[in-house]
Amino acid sequence: MTFSLADLAALAPVIVLSVGALVLLLTEVFLSGENRGYQAFVTAATAAVAFALYFSMGPKVSEQPYVLLGGFAVIDAFSCFAGATICAGLLLTALLGHGFLKPRDAERGEFYALCLLAAAGMCLLVQGNDLLFIFIALETLSIATYALAAYLRAEAKPTEAAFKYFLLGAISSALFLFGAALCFGASGQTSLPGIGATPQSALLLAGLTLLLVGFGFKIAAVPFHMWAPDVYEGSPTPVTAFMAVAVKTAAFAALVRVLLTGFGGHGLAGAAAWQPLLSWIAILTMLGGNLWALTERSVKRMLAYSSVAHAGYLLVAVVAAGSGSALVRNEATSSLLFYLATYTITAAGAFGAISLMERLDPNGPQPWDLERFTGLAQRRPWVAIAMTILMLSLAGIPPTAGFMGKLLVFRAAVDAGQVRLAIVGVVSALIGLYYYLRIVVYMFMRPAPQQFAPAAPRSWVADLAVLSAAAAALWFGILSGPLAEAARASGTLFGG
User: Fewer CB within a 10 Å sphere, N or C end of the chain?
Assistant: First the structure.
C-alpha cells in the first residue's frame, strides 16, 4: 500500500470524524462537571464539516475518480454522495442522542465518540475497492455499533440486544472473510477490478455467495434479518436510528460497488451470477418485512420490520443496476442513492419521534407500545404532525420524499426488465400502508387517556431534529429535483 499527501485530502472527511472522536474522548477525561450538553453539538458540527467536505469533493471527482492508498480505495461521486448521507444521519443521531441521554444522566463523551468512529468506518467502507479494505472498514463500524447497542449497560434490553448483535455480526463477518478468501483463491488477488477480470469458476461463485450472505446480515435482508427486531428494540433509540440509516447506507453502497466492480464484468458472465438470487431475496424481504410488521404493537419493532422491507426496495435497485445497459445501470444506481438519502431523513426522524414519547423506565411494561401514541395530536400536536409526515413518507404516499424514492426505484426496475420485482414492490408497499396509517389513526382519531405515564422531559434539540426531518421529507417530495439531480450525477460511476 502506497500513501501520498493527496490521499490525505481524499480522506479528509474520515480524518475530521476521527479527530472529532479523539477530541471528545480527551475532553471527557479532563471534564469535572456534569454539563456535557456541548458534546452533542460538537458531534453535530463535526458531522456537518464532514458533510460539507463530501459535498465540495463530489463535483471534483465526478469526471475522474481518484484512486488512493495504492488502489485499496477510491473516491468518486458515488462514495461522496453516500458519505454525505452517512454524515447527515450522524448529525440527526447526535441531536436525538442529546435529548435521549440527558434525562437519563447517561450523556458521556464515549457515546458520541463511538458514533463518530462508526461513521468514519462507514465512510471508509463506501470508498473500499479491495475486499480486505472493505472487511477492515466493516469491522471498524461493527465494533463501534456493538458498543453503542450496549451503551445503557445497566438495563437488561440493551445488554441482550448487544449480545445478539455481536454474535450474529461476528458470524456475518466470518462468512464475508471466508468469501473473500475464496475469491482470492480463485483470482489470486482481493482487488475488485482484478476479481472482475477473473474467468468464471466454481470457487469464485462460492466466494460471491458467501460475500452476499455477509452483506445480507448487514442490510437485514430476509432470511438474514432475524437480529434486527430484537436489536432495534433493545438498543437506545438514537442508536437504533443510527443503525437503521447510516449502517444501511454504508452496506448498500459497498454492496453495489462489490457487485458491479468485482462481479459485474465478464468474469461471471456479468450480473447473471447474482441477479436471480438477489431477485428472490428482494421479494422475500419486501413481503416478509411488511407482513411481519402487521402483527406488531411495539412501534419500535414495527419500524424494525419496516426497515427490513425498505432493504427489499433497495435490493430492487441493486438488481436493476445489474442490467447490461449503461443507461439503465446509471438510472438504478441513481435511484438507490436518492432512496438512501430520503430514507435516512425519514427513518431517523421516525425513530426520533419514538424517543420523544419513550418513558424513562424502558424495562417497564411495553415502553414503545402503540398506546403511547393515543391522542398524541391533543397532547403534542407538532410531534403528531411530524410523525404523520414521516409515516406517509415511509409508506410512499405523495407528495413526500418516500413516494419519489419508490417511484424512481420501481421505474428503474421496469426499465431493466424486472417488471416482476416492481409489481411485488407495489403490492408490498400497499400492505405496509396498514401499519403506517394505524399509527396516524391512534394519534388523531383516538382520545387522549386520562391517566398516562409521562415521557422524558422535553428537549428542544430533539424536537428540532424530528421537525427538521419531517420538513425535509416533505420538501424533497415536492421539490425533489436538486436531490435527484445530485443522485443522478453521482450514479454515473457505474453507468458510464
Answer: C
Residue appearing with cell numbers 455481536: 166
Whats the size of the chain, residue-wise? 496
What are the residues whose beta carbons fall under 8 Å from the beta carbon of 295, sequence distance 6 or more? none
pLDDT tens for residues 337-352?
999 999 999 999 999 9
Using H for helix, E for strand and C for coil, what is the string for 337-368?
HHHHHHHHHHHHHHHHHHHHHCCCCCCCCCCC
Residues 6+ apart with CB under 8 A from 89: 241, 242, 245, 246, 249, 344, 348
pLDDT of residue 339: 96
* DSSP state letters, 354-408: HHHH--S-TTSS-TTBGGGGTTHHHH-HHHHHHHHHHHHHHHT-TTSHHHHHHHH
Number of independent structural domains in the chain: 1
pLDDT of residue 267: 46
Quote the pLDDT of residue 266. Answer: 47
Note the Cα 251 to chain centre separation in Å: 7
Query: Which grid coordinates belong to 439?
Result: 399509527
Quote the cell numbers at residue 302.
414495527
